[in-house]
Records
---
Amino acid sequence: MRIYVLHSYKISERKEEAKEMLSNKVKFYHLFGWWFQMSLDFRETPLCWFYNISEKPHLVNFVLFYTCIFLFFLVNFLSTIYVLYILSMK
Protein backbone atom coordinates (compact mmCIF):
# COMPACT_ATOMS: atom_id res chain seq x y z
CA MET A 1 0.00 0.00 0.00
CA ARG A 2 2.77 2.40 0.88
CA ILE A 3 4.56 1.75 -2.41
CA TYR A 4 1.31 2.38 -4.32
CA VAL A 5 0.77 5.72 -2.56
CA LEU A 6 4.36 6.74 -3.21
CA HIS A 7 4.07 5.69 -6.86
CA SER A 8 0.78 7.56 -7.39
CA TYR A 9 2.30 10.64 -5.72
CA LYS A 10 5.21 10.58 -8.17
CA ILE A 11 2.85 10.24 -11.14
CA SER A 12 0.66 13.11 -9.96
CA GLU A 13 3.80 15.19 -9.46
CA ARG A 14 4.88 14.41 -13.04
CA LYS A 15 1.41 15.31 -14.32
CA GLU A 16 1.72 18.70 -12.64
CA GLU A 17 5.09 19.07 -14.34
CA ALA A 18 3.48 18.19 -17.68
CA LYS A 19 0.73 20.78 -17.18
CA GLU A 20 3.36 23.39 -16.40
CA MET A 21 5.26 22.44 -19.57
CA LEU A 22 2.07 22.86 -21.60
CA SER A 23 1.48 26.34 -20.18
CA ASN A 24 5.09 27.24 -20.96
CA LYS A 25 4.59 25.98 -24.53
CA VAL A 26 1.65 28.35 -24.95
CA LYS A 27 3.85 31.26 -23.83
CA PHE A 28 6.55 30.07 -26.23
CA TYR A 29 4.01 29.96 -29.08
CA HIS A 30 3.23 33.64 -28.51
CA LEU A 31 6.92 34.51 -28.57
CA PHE A 32 7.56 32.37 -31.66
CA GLY A 33 4.53 33.86 -33.41
CA TRP A 34 5.94 37.34 -32.86
CA TRP A 35 9.38 36.23 -34.11
CA PHE A 36 7.87 34.47 -37.15
CA GLN A 37 5.86 37.54 -38.07
CA MET A 38 8.97 39.70 -37.81
CA SER A 39 10.97 37.17 -39.86
CA LEU A 40 8.65 37.25 -42.85
CA ASP A 41 10.73 40.18 -43.98
CA PHE A 42 14.27 38.75 -43.92
CA ARG A 43 15.85 42.13 -43.30
CA GLU A 44 14.04 42.41 -39.95
CA THR A 45 14.94 39.02 -38.49
CA PRO A 46 16.10 39.18 -34.88
CA LEU A 47 19.30 37.47 -36.07
CA CYS A 48 20.13 40.62 -38.02
CA TRP A 49 20.14 42.59 -34.81
CA PHE A 50 23.04 40.52 -33.53
CA TYR A 51 24.94 39.36 -36.61
CA ASN A 52 24.23 41.93 -39.30
CA ILE A 53 23.10 39.16 -41.66
CA SER A 54 21.57 41.64 -44.07
CA GLU A 55 25.03 42.22 -45.54
CA LYS A 56 25.61 38.49 -46.13
CA PRO A 57 24.27 36.63 -49.17
CA HIS A 58 20.56 36.02 -49.27
CA LEU A 59 21.11 32.24 -49.24
CA VAL A 60 22.75 32.35 -45.80
CA ASN A 61 19.82 34.27 -44.39
CA PHE A 62 17.38 31.89 -46.06
CA VAL A 63 19.13 28.78 -44.65
CA LEU A 64 19.32 30.25 -41.13
CA PHE A 65 15.67 31.20 -41.19
CA TYR A 66 14.42 27.77 -42.25
CA THR A 67 16.86 25.97 -39.97
CA CYS A 68 15.37 27.87 -37.02
CA ILE A 69 11.85 26.94 -38.12
CA PHE A 70 12.83 23.26 -38.51
CA LEU A 71 14.45 23.20 -35.06
CA PHE A 72 11.38 24.83 -33.53
CA PHE A 73 9.04 22.20 -34.95
CA LEU A 74 11.40 19.37 -34.01
CA VAL A 75 11.61 20.52 -30.39
CA ASN A 76 7.87 21.14 -30.35
CA PHE A 77 7.15 17.63 -31.65
CA LEU A 78 9.49 15.93 -29.18
CA SER A 79 8.21 17.91 -26.19
CA THR A 80 4.60 17.16 -27.17
CA ILE A 81 5.35 13.43 -27.24
CA TYR A 82 7.04 13.71 -23.83
CA VAL A 83 4.08 15.59 -22.33
CA LEU A 84 1.60 13.07 -23.76
CA TYR A 85 3.69 10.23 -22.35
CA ILE A 86 3.60 11.76 -18.86
CA LEU A 87 -0.13 12.45 -19.04
CA SER A 88 -0.87 8.92 -20.23
CA MET A 89 0.71 7.33 -17.14
CA LYS A 90 -1.76 5.84 -14.73
Note: The CA atoms of residues 37 and 70 lie 16 Å apart.
---
Amino acid sequence: SLLGLGLAAAAAIAGLVVLRGTGPDVRALGAVRDAPLYLGVPVRATPAPADSLFERAMTAYTGGNYGAAATGLARALAAGGDSAPALFFLGASELMTGRPAAAADALRRVIGLGHTPYLPEAHYYLAKALLRTGDGDAALRELGTMRSGDTVVAASATALADSIRRLRKR
Protein backbone atom coordinates (compact mmCIF):
# COMPACT_ATOMS: atom_id res chain seq x y z
CA SER A 1 0.00 0.00 0.00
CA LEU A 2 1.02 3.62 -0.38
CA LEU A 3 0.99 4.09 3.36
CA GLY A 4 3.36 1.16 3.81
CA LEU A 5 5.73 2.44 1.11
CA GLY A 6 5.66 5.93 2.60
CA LEU A 7 6.45 4.60 6.07
CA ALA A 8 9.27 2.44 4.68
CA ALA A 9 10.77 5.41 2.81
CA ALA A 10 10.55 7.63 5.88
CA ALA A 11 12.19 4.94 8.01
CA ALA A 12 15.02 4.53 5.49
CA ILE A 13 15.67 8.28 5.36
CA ALA A 14 15.54 8.53 9.16
CA GLY A 15 17.91 5.57 9.41
CA LEU A 16 20.44 7.27 7.13
CA VAL A 17 20.24 10.49 9.13
CA VAL A 18 20.56 8.62 12.43
CA LEU A 19 23.54 6.62 11.21
CA ARG A 20 25.32 9.72 9.92
CA GLY A 21 24.25 12.20 12.57
CA THR A 22 25.68 12.81 15.99
CA GLY A 23 24.70 14.85 18.99
CA PRO A 24 21.30 16.11 20.12
CA ASP A 25 19.83 16.45 16.59
CA VAL A 26 19.80 12.66 16.23
CA ARG A 27 17.57 12.28 19.27
CA ALA A 28 15.15 14.83 17.84
CA LEU A 29 14.36 12.40 15.02
CA GLY A 30 12.75 10.09 17.55
CA ALA A 31 10.22 12.72 18.60
CA VAL A 32 6.59 12.06 17.70
CA ARG A 33 4.50 15.20 17.65
CA ASP A 34 1.14 13.58 16.97
CA ALA A 35 0.19 10.00 17.66
CA PRO A 36 -0.97 7.93 14.68
CA LEU A 37 -4.69 8.42 14.03
CA TYR A 38 -6.86 5.59 15.26
CA LEU A 39 -9.94 5.07 13.13
CA GLY A 40 -11.35 2.08 14.98
CA VAL A 41 -10.57 -0.27 12.11
CA PRO A 42 -7.46 -2.34 11.49
CA VAL A 43 -5.27 -0.79 8.80
CA ARG A 44 -2.52 -3.39 8.61
CA ALA A 45 -4.58 -6.54 8.32
CA THR A 46 -7.88 -7.79 7.03
CA PRO A 47 -10.41 -8.29 9.83
CA ALA A 48 -10.91 -11.92 10.82
CA PRO A 49 -14.34 -13.43 10.15
CA ALA A 50 -14.96 -13.48 13.90
CA ASP A 51 -14.49 -9.69 14.02
CA SER A 52 -17.26 -9.05 11.52
CA LEU A 53 -19.51 -11.57 13.27
CA PHE A 54 -18.89 -9.75 16.55
CA GLU A 55 -19.63 -6.35 14.99
CA ARG A 56 -22.91 -7.60 13.47
CA ALA A 57 -23.91 -9.13 16.79
CA MET A 58 -23.15 -5.89 18.60
CA THR A 59 -25.24 -3.95 16.08
CA ALA A 60 -28.14 -6.21 17.05
CA TYR A 61 -27.27 -5.74 20.73
CA THR A 62 -27.23 -1.95 20.58
CA GLY A 63 -30.49 -2.10 18.66
CA GLY A 64 -32.10 -4.06 21.48
CA ASN A 65 -32.35 -7.33 19.53
CA TYR A 66 -30.75 -9.46 22.23
CA GLY A 67 -31.80 -12.81 20.79
CA ALA A 68 -30.04 -12.07 17.51
CA ALA A 69 -27.09 -10.68 19.46
CA ALA A 70 -26.77 -13.90 21.48
CA THR A 71 -26.84 -16.00 18.32
CA GLY A 72 -24.28 -13.77 16.62
CA LEU A 73 -21.98 -13.67 19.63
CA ALA A 74 -22.05 -17.47 19.90
CA ARG A 75 -21.04 -17.62 16.23
CA ALA A 76 -18.25 -15.09 16.80
CA LEU A 77 -16.91 -17.19 19.67
CA ALA A 78 -17.07 -20.36 17.57
CA ALA A 79 -15.12 -18.54 14.84
CA GLY A 80 -12.37 -17.62 17.31
CA GLY A 81 -13.46 -14.13 18.33
CA ASP A 82 -11.99 -12.28 21.31
CA SER A 83 -13.59 -14.22 24.12
CA ALA A 84 -13.87 -11.63 26.91
CA PRO A 85 -16.15 -9.11 25.17
CA ALA A 86 -18.05 -11.76 23.23
CA LEU A 87 -18.72 -13.83 26.34
CA PHE A 88 -19.66 -10.81 28.43
CA PHE A 89 -22.17 -9.48 25.92
CA LEU A 90 -23.43 -13.01 25.27
CA GLY A 91 -24.16 -13.28 28.99
CA ALA A 92 -25.87 -9.90 28.99
CA SER A 93 -27.91 -10.83 25.92
CA GLU A 94 -28.98 -14.12 27.48
CA LEU A 95 -29.98 -12.28 30.64
CA MET A 96 -31.98 -9.73 28.66
CA THR A 97 -33.84 -12.47 26.78
CA GLY A 98 -34.88 -14.25 29.96
CA ARG A 99 -32.33 -17.08 29.88
CA PRO A 100 -30.56 -16.63 33.22
CA ALA A 101 -28.94 -20.09 33.29
CA ALA A 102 -27.33 -19.49 29.89
CA ALA A 103 -26.35 -16.00 31.05
CA ALA A 104 -24.72 -17.43 34.16
CA ASP A 105 -22.75 -19.93 32.08
CA ALA A 106 -21.35 -17.20 29.81
CA LEU A 107 -20.59 -14.86 32.70
CA ARG A 108 -18.79 -17.60 34.64
CA ARG A 109 -16.60 -18.10 31.58
CA VAL A 110 -15.76 -14.37 31.56
CA ILE A 111 -14.80 -14.59 35.24
CA GLY A 112 -12.71 -17.67 34.47
CA LEU A 113 -10.61 -15.59 32.08
CA GLY A 114 -9.26 -13.62 35.03
CA HIS A 115 -8.49 -9.92 34.97
CA THR A 116 -10.26 -8.42 31.98
CA PRO A 117 -12.06 -5.08 31.73
CA TYR A 118 -15.32 -7.04 32.05
CA LEU A 119 -14.54 -8.78 35.35
CA PRO A 120 -16.40 -6.52 37.83
CA GLU A 121 -19.49 -6.30 35.63
CA ALA A 122 -19.40 -10.06 35.02
CA HIS A 123 -19.59 -10.70 38.77
CA TYR A 124 -22.44 -8.22 39.13
CA TYR A 125 -24.50 -9.58 36.24
CA LEU A 126 -23.80 -13.15 37.30
CA ALA A 127 -25.35 -12.23 40.64
CA LYS A 128 -28.35 -10.82 38.73
CA ALA A 129 -28.63 -14.05 36.71
CA LEU A 130 -28.42 -16.12 39.89
CA LEU A 131 -31.18 -14.02 41.42
CA ARG A 132 -33.29 -14.64 38.32
CA THR A 133 -32.90 -18.38 38.92
CA GLY A 134 -33.95 -17.88 42.54
CA ASP A 135 -30.55 -18.53 44.11
CA GLY A 136 -30.14 -15.60 46.49
CA ASP A 137 -27.41 -17.36 48.49
CA ALA A 138 -25.23 -17.81 45.40
CA ALA A 139 -25.96 -14.23 44.34
CA LEU A 140 -24.80 -12.92 47.72
CA ARG A 141 -21.65 -15.05 47.52
CA GLU A 142 -20.96 -13.68 44.04
CA LEU A 143 -21.46 -10.10 45.16
CA GLY A 144 -19.16 -10.82 48.11
CA THR A 145 -16.31 -11.64 45.73
CA MET A 146 -16.35 -8.13 44.31
CA ARG A 147 -13.90 -5.54 45.56
CA SER A 148 -15.44 -2.54 47.18
CA GLY A 149 -14.43 0.76 45.70
CA ASP A 150 -15.55 3.98 44.19
CA THR A 151 -16.86 2.45 40.99
CA VAL A 152 -20.48 2.49 39.93
CA VAL A 153 -20.43 -1.30 39.68
CA ALA A 154 -19.12 -1.68 43.25
CA ALA A 155 -21.78 0.70 44.55
CA SER A 156 -24.47 -1.17 42.62
CA ALA A 157 -23.19 -4.49 43.97
CA THR A 158 -23.28 -3.19 47.54
CA ALA A 159 -26.80 -1.85 47.07
CA LEU A 160 -27.94 -5.13 45.51
CA ALA A 161 -26.45 -7.18 48.35
CA ASP A 162 -28.11 -4.88 50.90
CA SER A 163 -31.43 -5.29 49.10
CA ILE A 164 -31.10 -9.08 49.15
CA ARG A 165 -30.35 -9.03 52.87
CA ARG A 166 -33.27 -6.67 53.62
CA LEU A 167 -35.64 -8.87 51.64
CA ARG A 168 -34.56 -11.91 53.63
CA LYS A 169 -35.30 -10.17 56.94
CA ARG A 170 -38.95 -9.73 56.04
Note: Residues 7 and 106 are 43 Å apart (CA to CA).
